[in-house]
Fold this sequence. Notes:
By secondary structure, this protein is α/β, with parallel strands linked by helices. The chain has helices at 6-26, 31-42, 57-67, 84-87, 121-124, 126-133, 168-171, 185-196, 208-218, 225-239, 259-275, 283-294, 302-306, 311-321, 330-335, and strands spanning 47-50, 72-76, 88-93, 98-103, 110-114, 135-138, 141-144, 150-155, 176-179, 253-255, 299-300. The relative contact order is 0.14. Pfam families: AAA_3, AAA_lid_2.
Amino acid sequence: MDAQTPADNNDTAQVMEQILYEVKRVVVGQDRFLERVMVAMLAQGHLLVEGVPGLAKTLTVKTLASTVRGQFKRIQFTPDLVPADLVGTRIYNQKTGEFSTSLGPVFTNLLLADEINRAPAKVQSALLEVMQERQVTIAGVSHKVPEPFLVMATQNPIETEGTYPLPEAQVDRFMMKVLVDYPSDEEEFVIVERVIGPAVAVTAVATTEQLSALQHECRRIYVDPSLIQYAVRLVSATRTPDRHGLKDLARFITFGASPRATINLTEGARALAMLRGRSYALPEDMSDLVPDVLRHRLVLSYEALSEGLTADALTARIMARVSPPAKPLAHEKLAA
Length: 336
């Protein structure tokens, strides 16, 4: 790739700004959630979203797909769902006597897996290959999904009846787990006004090709080695707290985060730096994402659960102990 020029930087910022502007015309508030969706898109990661019904989770992804002229598909997960309903299957044609492949709804740009914890593990595991390899194997033949590809899965925290825990291997493939909260009174007032008012037509401001180009550009954002070391220390502290002066945490964490967490922290910091208009990542870019990247990866012990401790509380204690590096000097050279 050619060296990035100032004009390229301006174009990137303009495209991102236009996408966000269009989504914000429809979605009220949820700035943090929206920022995390954009980070996941740029870093080519997947998102697990937890929130009660009616908080614009589906609307956000659907609107985002419209702004980038991408395909959007939604799968409502239910206990009677089978893997073929997701990835597709082989169909026998009686007239020709041949089998044809019918591709499932995972062949799209933005896939919303609604209430993912309502389906049994067999169905949830059908997403494993497509999330990691960006392909599906049907009857021994591999089929690539379109680029760009993002899975956003939602789960409802208040309904536990008839739900299944997600397999650890699948949870680990989600880049971040984001908690979506209720809107403020002012935001809710605007939401009602927009719903009862005239419908807003979303304008497509970019193409999927432009989004793919932004993803490639994101990989060129500079990350100082000291930042990567910071990510390694944070993740290491979840596995062996005693080595980092956190001996009292060892009894609360059964399993720590995997190397995917370190990779996701680094990739996420890059994407957040790009969203903030920089060609280099700073410690605060990574620190902002630590709770979202580690939240779903920590397996807490019964002792932690009995004491009412959450993954967020333990992450906060780890972050207080593992200090971020001083702002890397190399970014000053790049900025100049």
